[in-house]
Amino acid sequence: MKCYHYGGYFVWCKPPSLRPRLHLIALNAPQTGNMRGIRGADFLCFQQARAVGLKGTFRAFLSSKLQDLYTIVRRSDRDSLPILNLKDQVLFSSWESIFGDNTSKMRENVPIYSFDGRDIIRDSAWPEKMVWHGSSNKGHRQMDHYCETWRAGDHPVTGLASSLQSGQLLQQTSSSCSGSYIVLCIENAIISHSKK
Question: Which label site among 101, 116, 126, 129 has the fewest CB atoms less than 10 Å from its CB?
């Protein structure tokens, strides 16, 4: 059984699993639209995943100038792997189910956790229960609505976000880039799970 710790504190233990799956986990603090670009956001995902011993590759759940959110997960994995939270509870049946006009809602009563193990809906560290994404509901980049490639935290500039309380990740809510919102990280490579 593998146990995870963050900053010296126990987070959780889980039994080993060989079944392929992808995790969706939040950064440990809300972010404005200025994340130093998509590379800055991706680096935070990478850094915080490593800090708790997760070995998969994590990318920010964001569209950017050169990337549609939908394409972050490999084509072969989009409709075959479940999307789980930090504690291996199913959030969505597949990556594909998050997108499109008939999008699925998150499973009820299954929380999204941060890398350090907090339920982001219940925890006051995230006063705004909004998730940055910068995408259409099909996961395509929206050029005028991703906080100038995630480099702007100014009030007049906007980015697209979604209310987590809706149970959907791609609501089309135009929001000021000065807002501090949730940033999610999606595991997009399933290598090395068996090594945990």
Answer: 101
